[in-house]
Amino acid sequence: MLNRLKVLYQLQLVDDQLDKLEELRGDLPNMVSSLENSINVLKTEISDKELAQRESVEKRTQNEEEVEKLKESQKKFKAQLYQVRNNKEYDALTKEIDHSDEQISKLEAENNALADSSKSLSEQIEELKPKLEELETELKEREADLREIIKANEKEEAVLQSDRKKIEDQIKKPDVSVYMRIRKAKKGKAVATIRRSACSGCHNIVPSQRQLEIRRNSRIFTCEYCGRILISQEIADEVEAS
Ligand SMILES: [Zn+2]
After folding, report:
1. Ligand 1 centroid, distance to 158 Cα (angstroms)
2. What CATH architecture applies to the domain 2-24+155-241?
3. Which residues lie at CB < 5 A from ion ligand 1?
4. What pLDDT is attached to residue 189?
5. DSSP label at residue 221
């Protein structure tokens, strides 16, 4: 049991050092990922607008072709007007001509609207592009800063990670899970010691009867206030000395 408690404290000490290295990175990892998000959002926005613009150009070309065809057939109808034999034929032809007139003006109006929206899309895209460039430059700078910090502590971190692995291998899986759960909930510290009769994690007084039990190192106790694993000062001193 003594060893079980010792390795948990060893794990905590290594994690403390790893946390310090993590702290050196400050807000940079968050900044990098939030910049990446903003860039993705912006890129999607731009490509959506570019797609809408391409579709608008295609539609306009289709409409123009349609207008050409209508004008062609109108020419034929107009030529036929001179060869009509009766009113019925004449009415039918003028009806066709009127109908294609309507269609032509409808398509031309549609194309004017499409040209307007295409122009506005171009303007929007041109406004977004410098913003995207700005964010990409900032991202590059932040990434470089972060890489520099990581590189400066690369070796130290590798040593700590390999130590951590060795320590973790000595701990039973359920203990590791409990440790990791508390560590996550308490943002770092999962194992606390007793200092001046108080839990070093939350500074609440540990009842003296409980302190005695903890000093026996015979089982895992957790702080009744913060839930951290409580170990005796004796274990802490021994591990820190080694
Ligand atoms: Zn506590």
Report:
1. 31
2. Orthogonal Bundle (1.10)
3. 199, 201-202, 223, 225-226
4. 94
5. E
